[in-house]
Design brief:
single chain, alpha/beta, Rossmann fold, 6-stranded mixed sheet, 22 strands
Length: 521
């Protein structure tokens, strides 16, 4: 189907929240049968624009047209009737419903008497997942609350595709997926493009934009600053448009030699219910050790076990001066171990969205700030000010609800909350998921500064470039075991991918292994 360049068009769209300008006089169009990447830092206005198109937010002024016809999007239902479907970064699935119930929620198959046909519902959900290519191992009868984040993200995508959109909007929809599932989703998006669907694709993973987009538009500070054909600008030129400056080096330099200290974390034979099958690892003070591998190979369970969240785990473990796994999160953060866990889903596991920035930043350290059960408010204010300044948290004020912050600034608050406890072992679960390149660089620099100060860091990432560019050593997990231990020049994409598939990289390929891309993560 030919590309109609003005199939979806916005003219003079603006949105203000109190004194903060989210969008300023935005005029923008996207074509039928095209994939249009929307780029910009967190807080640049991308998500606000998508919410206006999805009917979730009303613009203060301006117009929207679809296929030459003016639209009045007075709510999400109106957008859905027009075939505009949005996959938000914040998942909208209902946790207590099954996979099939969520996927078919908008239009469940019914019997003649009006009751839902459960068998037909499961078959329809399975067909959508199979078409997407991500349904393997996902039981359509499973309750969504029991699924890991990556599987819940797949359900969210499948639910949107079941509505047969004319305009499909993806707001960081691949950020929680493994590289393999993300590639399957991108293949399906290409098929939708051939069928004439207009796809708006927000991603901070530039390799996905390079592989997928026909056209790119950049937003900065609520303004639409440029639109250009994909591939016509270098990564550095795109970054300069996004943030107004160039980033010469995304990753801070690694130390030349590993720290000589004794391990702060020593694990031998860690096992649990066939998920972890005898994990051995050490992490020293001042070291960043990465966890790689395909999704679901035990990385999440390993970090949860070390943080005292996962029960029924066995093995010989020493953390700091304490022997054995912690009995719970409180014991993990105690003086003997001093562990902090940054969870994978900041919205549901890392923040109290209705509380203020200040309340979230100080929450984990309230024991230290209290005497006889009374919080020292002066000490709390000083702690919050120090953390907000150190992490460059951008917020209207520190009493603003943390829910009003951009995703990158919310992640900074999660990090700050646990840095307030002064951890000695920092466990990170994909901490840069859905975050712009500028904020990523700040987090990378923070991690390296913490390591230089003697913190031991165990870092799980679904992004190969992060493992290559940031980590001193990388452990690749496969089927609950460490399949490879990589260090120095051994840390390459080819070695990580081959180990993730339980393959041995060919010796002849050693000279051609690609080092990490010093571009966008």
């Amino acid at each position: 189907m030919p590309n109609d360049p003005a199939f979806l068009a916005l003219a003079g769209v603006a949105k203000r929240y109190g004194g903060a300008v989210a969008l300023r006089d935005v005029s923008f169009s996207a074509g039928r049968g095209s994939i249009h990447a929307i780029l910009g830092e967190n807080g640049a206005g991308k998500s606000t624009l998508m919410k206006i198109l999805a009917g979730a937010v009303a613009a203060d002024c301006g117009s929207v047209t679809l296929d030459g016809r003016p639209l009045r999007l007075d709510g999400p239902a109106a957008a859905l009737r027009e075939g505009i479907v949005c996959i938000f970064q914040e998942l909208s699935i209902i946790p207590d419903l099954t996979v099939a119930e969520n996927i078919c929620l908008a239009d469940p198959p019914r019997r003649r008497i009006g009751t839902i046909d459960r068998g037909a519902q499961r078959r329809r959900a399975r067909a959508v997942l199979d078409a997407l290519g991500c349904g393997s191992g996902l039981d359509v009868r499973a309750r969504c609350a029991d699924l890991p984040l990556a599987k819940r993200q797949i359900v969210e995508i499948a639910k949107a595709l079941a509505r047969r959109p004319r305009v499909l909007i993806l707001d960081e929809a691949t950020s929680a997926l493994s590289a393999e599932d993300a590639e399957r989703v991108m293949r399906h998006l290409r098929r939708l493009r051939e069928e004439g669907v207009c796809v708006l694709f927000i991603s901070h993973r530039m390799h996905e934009v390079d592989a997928l987009a026909d056209t790119c538009s950049v937003f900065r500070n609520g303004e639409h600053v440029a639109t250009f054909p994909a591939g016509s600008r270098t990564h550095d030129e795109i970054v300069r448009l996004m943030i107004g400056r160039s980033i010469a080096h995304v990753y801070p330099p690694k130390p030349e030699r590993p720290p000589p200290a004794e391990p702060y974390l020593r694990v031998r034979g860690l096992a649990r219910d066939g998920v972890l099958k005898g994990i051995d690892l050490d992490v020293r003070p001042g070291e960043i050790v990465g966890l790689g591998g395909l999704d679901g190979q035990g990385q999440r369970e390993l970090l949860l076990a070390l943080a005292g969240v996962l029960r029924g785990t066995t093995g010989d473990v020493r953390i700091g001066t304490a022997a054995g796994l912690p009995s719970g999160p409180r014991a993990a953060g105690g003086p003997g171990r001093r562990i902090a866990l940054i969870p994978e889903d900041r919205k549901t596991e890392g923040l109290f969205l209705g509380l203020s920035v200040a309340a979230n930043l100080s929450f984990a350290a309230l024991d230290r700030l209290s005497r006889c059960g009374i919080v020292d408010t002066d000490a709390e204010r000083a702690l919050v000010a120090g953390l907000a300044g150190r992490l460059a948290v951008k917020a209207p004020d520190r009493d603003a609800p943390v829910a009003t912050l951009s995703g990158g600034n919310q992640q900074k608050v999660v990090l700050g909350k646990w840095l307030a406890t002064e951890p000695k072992l920092l466990l990170l679960m994909d901490p840069t998921r859905g975050i712009d390149v500028g904020t990523k660089q700040e987090i990378y620099r923070l991690m390296r500064d913490l390591a230089a100060a003697g913190v031991a860091i165990l870092f799980h990432s679904t992004d190969y470039d992060e493992l290559i560019g940031l980590c001193d050593r990388v452990l690749v997990l496969y089927d609950g075991r460490v399949a490879a231990r990589l260090s120095g020049a051994e840390i390459t994409e080819e070695a990580i991918v081959a180990s993730a598939l339980n393959l041995r990289p060919a010796a002849s390929a050693a000279g051609s292994r690609r080092p990490h891309r010093e571009a966008l993560a």
